[in-house]
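We modelled the chain as a single entity of 157 amino acids. Its sequence is:
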Amino acid sequence: MAENEPTHEISAEVADLLQRKGTLEIIVRIGEEDFLRHTDLRRELLMSSSTIQKRLKAGREHGLWDQRLEEWGDVTAKVYALTSLGDSLYARAKERELVELYQSRREIVRTIQNRERRVVLESSPADADWISDITMEEHDIQHVQKFLEQFTDSEST
């Protein structure tokens, strides 16, 4: 941090909140974009919607970010923007390269999940009735085509 940049001391309650799963990552994501909606966070972070909602509420109560209404096309949406305390924590997180590390972790976890799905798909019988429950949008086109072949092969026989 620059010498003339204000530093914020945090309370024990805020320190406790920062130690809870996802709080600091939410600060980093909002800090990267200036403001985000709950749906943006839910799509990007590897957390449940309820965890995100709890952290957003607690972060608002502890002054890490503010909630405001913004026009998004024809819809009014709640968006979250960092307060000066949140900005200070974001700057500290950025100095420690948490922005890059969180992004890398999300990419690694998604890669692992995709490869796990591929193993399941490649190891499963083509006629398994549950196979269509596996999320396909995260697979590459080759694996989607292999999945779809089970339907075209059965029609031609």
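As a brief sanity check on the tokenised model: The chain has seven helices and three strands. Helices lie at 12-18, 23-33, 38-44, 49-61, 84-95, 98-123, 141-156.
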